[in-house]
Amino acid sequence: MTIIVSIILLPIGFIYSLGYSFWLAITYKNVKGFFTFWWRLIDGLAYALGFILHNTAVGLDLTWNVNGEILEDMVTPKEDTTFTNKGITVSASVGKLEVENDLNKYGKIFSRVLNFAFQQKAHAVDSWNVYVKINEINSKHFK
Known about the structure:
- By secondary structure, the chain is mainly alpha-helical.
- It has two domains: 9-23 and 30-62; 67-141, no CATH class.
- Helix content is 78%, strand content 0%.
- The protein has helices at residues 2-27, 31-66, 69-75, 90-99, 105-118, 123-141.
- Helix 4 packs across helix 5 (105-118) and helix 4 (90-99) crosses helix 6 (123-141).
- The longest helix has 36 residues, at 31-66.
- The mean pLDDT is 94.
């Protein structure tokens, strides 16, 4: 439904914004206002696109974890882990194992690869800590 509404409203909004930006520049005799308006619009669209891409990536990560038996077998000798659980990312599952010191040699390498890829010192551990805090907040306030 959101896609249908967006298909209808976004073109109307762009046409309105174009007219509004010219009206703004002419009425206030301020050409800078025209460019400021469009800069804010483009900046907001870029932010929205980044938000969409980030949420798509998180959704894929959740999917990889649900189908994560192969990853579990690669990174730890344990069988009862958060891999294959819904609602948790691969990074958080690896982070939990790292906190519990249950990663094998390949799991430690995988964790370092995640650190490098996301330019963080402890990506998996941070992901696990965020997961724990979010669940704590949700259990206190939303359930």
